[in-house]
């Protein structure tokens, strides 16, 4: 009997290989992120096509940029944002100008993964022990991907976050008056993109301060000048936006300096010019209660320096005060303004009454008079554990496991604080908090075992409206569940280094005697840097990498 003919269709026909890359890219542009990742495992060709940077650029826009534009109410075209639809020009995206620098090529898949990891708290953590034990403790600042540490024994050191195996640069602290070591008490750094340098200012116990330049390309650190000590005591706080440096002394003197070249008309290179600091103004207070936060920013033709401090108010407990000093480009003071968070803690809308009227007309009897609440909606019985201010965001942390966020509004007419909302999520006392100018904040518990990421912009955008959004924080969860001992020594000292994460972190904490974190948390677009102190006195740096 003859065999029957096979009538089955040929399902193995390849319909895709004959298509051009352009057509396939157009097809792939309609796929979701999980589908793109699946396509990358099909073949080498699809691995390259599904990983195309333009595909991930569109995914990035529709996942991260467009929802924010809609949330902020950018509905109509403006000169800066011509439309809210997708545009390949990153310069038209809201707050993404840093990714549109000329000559910079962005890996959009990597950028998408970075934002995704931040949104989920996914990272890898590396713990690094500092030298034993520094007295006073080491000062740490994180700027432009560089970690700067200052202590009397090693001077000013710079470490690259991408390659922390060795110190990139080091300059010792030397005093001209005596051979005694100079003890640093404050540290600040700011990035200057025009010169591609980081400018660092270090304040000392003697009252003097030094300014350094860090060439980010050549990784060269050099001392520019040292300003002689004053009679106001040790410098305990600093902020900078060069050429301006703001500092506060132990004797409650707030000083603003301008750094300028002594021979500006010279043909010398900027790195060869002699610089000096000139005092613009000094304010003295009877007392400044810590914690505090200093800020310097340039707004148009004005330089605005701010000091944020805590004080006790009889009605609503501990509150926060803000003083702004405005200067023109020539260094002349043109305005000084003061406001507090007292009205916000009572739930008073600043648009209805001025802050002066608020203080004069607050009712003393029970009931609600003129819409004023006799009982505060936000009451703090203990001083804040830390304060962070990056205009317009003001954030305070507290020992009752909460944070409080405010919106600072500074116009040509007035300065006031808007809103005010408690943030819940921590399960223990919050010891340190840091907020950035784009509304992202990082907070850490007193033991350092709980780190949370906050997106404040959605909350702030609804201040003053009937709609109240519930806060939503993300707990950092390192994905490296095992820690391993490196054969190499620690980055900042000759002690073993560990990578820790997950449940292993608590065993390391117990064995090493970790006590608490001391108000030092820094972050950038890729990493979080946390400084912790052990019971035995030495310190530990932790790098949380979200890339």
UniProtKB/TrEMBL annotation:
SUPFAM superfamilies: F-box domain, Quinoprotein alcohol dehydrogenase-like
SMART domains hit by this protein: FBOX
Gene Ontology, cellular component aspect: SCF ubiquitin ligase complex
Ranges: WD repeats: 423-457
UniProt entry keywords in alphabetical sequence: WD repeat
Keyword Protein biosynthesis tagged: no
Lyase recorded as keyword: no
Membership in a protein family: Belongs to the WD repeat MET30/SCONB/SCON-2 family.
Role of this protein: Component of the SCF(sconB) E3 ubiquitin ligase complex involved in the regulation of sulfur metabolite repression, probably by mediating the inactivation or degradation of the metR transcription factor.
Record's subunit section: Component of the SCF(sconB) E3 ubiquitin ligase complex.
Protein name: Probable E3 ubiquitin ligase complex SCF subunit sconB
Organism whose genome encodes this protein: Petromyces alliaceus
């Amino acid at each position: 009997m003859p065999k029957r003919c096979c009538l089955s269709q040929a399902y193995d026909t390849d319909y895709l290989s004959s298509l051009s890359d352009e057509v396939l890219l157009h097809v792939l542009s309609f796929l979701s992120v999980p589908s793109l990742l699946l396509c990358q495992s099909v073949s080498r060709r699809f691995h390259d096509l599904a990983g195309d940077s333009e595909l991930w650029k569109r995914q990035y826009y529709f996942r991260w940029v467009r929802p924010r534009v809609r949330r902020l109410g950018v509905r109509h075209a403006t000169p800066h944002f011509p439309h809210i639809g997708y545009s390949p020009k990153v310069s038209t995206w809201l707050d993404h100008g840093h990714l549109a620098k000329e000559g910079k090529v962005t890996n959009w898949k990597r950028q998408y993964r970075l934002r995704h990891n931040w949104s989920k708290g996914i990272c890898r953590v590396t713990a690094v022990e500092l030298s034993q034990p520094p007295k006073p403790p080491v000062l740490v600042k994180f700027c432009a991907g560089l970690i700067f540490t200052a202590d009397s024994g090693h001077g000013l050191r710079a470490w690259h976050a991408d390659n922390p195996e060795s110190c990139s640069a080091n300059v010792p602290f030397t005093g001209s008056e005596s051979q005694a070591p100079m003890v640093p008490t404050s540290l600040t750094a700011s990035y200057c993109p025009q010169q591609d340098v980081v400018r660092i200012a270090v304040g000392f116990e003697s009252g003097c301060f030094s300014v350094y330049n860090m060439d980010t390309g050549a990784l060269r650190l050099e001392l520019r000048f040292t300003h002689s000590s004053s009679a106001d005591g040790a410098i305990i706080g600093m902020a900078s936006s060069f050429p301006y440096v703001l500092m506060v002394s132990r004797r409650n003197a707030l000083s603003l300096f301008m750094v300028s070249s002594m021979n500006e008309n010279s043909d010398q290179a900027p790195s060869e010019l002699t610089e000096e600091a000139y005092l613009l103004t000094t304010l003295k207070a009877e007392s400044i209660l810590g914690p505090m936060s200093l800020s310097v920013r340039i707004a148009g033709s004005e330089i605005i320096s701010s000091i944020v401090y805590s004080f006790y108010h009889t009605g609503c407990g501990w509150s926060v005060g803000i003083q702004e000093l405005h200067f023109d480009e020539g260094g002349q003071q043109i305005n000084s303004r003061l406001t507090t968070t007292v009205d916000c803690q009572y739930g008073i809308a600043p648009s209805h009454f001025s802050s002066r009227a608020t203080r004069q007309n607050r009712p003393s009897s029970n009931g609600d008079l003129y819409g004023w609440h006799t009982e505060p909606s936000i009451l703090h019985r203990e001083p804040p554990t830390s304060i962070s201010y990056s205009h317009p965001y003001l954030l305070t942390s507290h020992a009752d496991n909460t944070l409080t966020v405010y919106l600072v509004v500074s116009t040509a007419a007035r300065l006031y604080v808007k809103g005010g909302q408690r943030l819940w999520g921590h399960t223990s006392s919050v010891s340190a908090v840091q907020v950035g100018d784009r509304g992202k904040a990082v907070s850490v518990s007193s033991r350092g075992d709980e780190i949370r990421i906050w997106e404040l912009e959605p909350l702030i955008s609804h201040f003053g409206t009937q709609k109240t959004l519930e806060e939503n924080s993300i707990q950092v969860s390192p994905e490296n569940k095992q820690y391993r001992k490196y054969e190499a020594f620690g980055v900042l000292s000759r002690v073993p280094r560990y990578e820790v994460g997950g449940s292993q972190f608590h065993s390391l904490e117990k064995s090493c005697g970790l006590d608490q974190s001391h108000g030092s948390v820094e972050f950038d677009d890729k990493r979080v840097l946390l400084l912790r102190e052990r019971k035995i006195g030495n310190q530990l740096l932790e790098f949380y990498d979200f890339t």
